[in-house]
Protein: Methyltransferase
Amino acid sequence: MSAPIVAGEQSQINETPQPAADAPAQVAQAAPQAGSQAAQAPVQAEGDIAIDDSNSAYTDDLSTYTASLTSSVLNFPSENGRRYSAFREGTYVFPNDEREQDRMDIHHEMMLKACDGRLHLAPLTNPRRILDIGTGTGIWCIEMGDHYPDADVIGNDFSPVQPNMVPRNVKFEVDDVEAPWAHPIKFDYIHSRFMAGSIADWPKLVQTCYDNLNPGGIAEFVDGDFLLYSEDGSMKDSWLEKWNSDFVRAASLGGRTLRPGLQLEEWVRAAGFEDVHLEKIRLPIGLWPKDRQLASNTSKTFPIYQKNCS
Structure:
């Protein structure tokens, strides 16, 4: 399993990337394209928010949980012992229960370990507006809000499962990233991570991200190829190989690829990004790696795969 990373920066800003990070692609500004649907602003949440008054970083100023907390959005359906999103029911096929949230948080820890503790590889310089699409539990947004206290950090998702107590510069929205966007102000940095299996039209999503960047804005896409392979051929004809290939094929037949990492660079270039940079990260499963860093990554990938199969 591997996780390619592609990012982009507007061509007027010519910065030297940090030695440990890879330079994102340069982006040329483009006018937004008209969508077939009228853009609708994400519905806003009303409700009591838990605030920690003892910490000045958590106030009731911008810690408003701006997802639409209407009864319909919170009326999560259940099936076969798992809980699912109520917003545009059936569009997002993965659960949103605590078991799934634990899996997503392990994903976050895995990528931090694989990226030497960095929340992003893009060389950001004082971003003012940050968007995380498909934010999940919101853990990445919360850590980015702490790291960039002067930036407004927005995370959107189908499910309002994020915590109420967040840094004052962080807020969450319930939204569908494949519908036309209605944000009145563009972003300096757009982040997308592990949306495999969730997106029907990847080229359209990448183009939408491009169109919603400010001049100088950066987009970073982190996603994988979830078709397992064996470097020494030991997995050939195994039940694990058969199950995995059937699972990937079924997702593809359902219109949701589990292998977006293979085409990320192509989609990013087609959207108009320039100086595109691609980095591939190996994510081994099992205890076989002799390389210390790869073996360290395994401590997270193996439990994730166990949860994926359960």
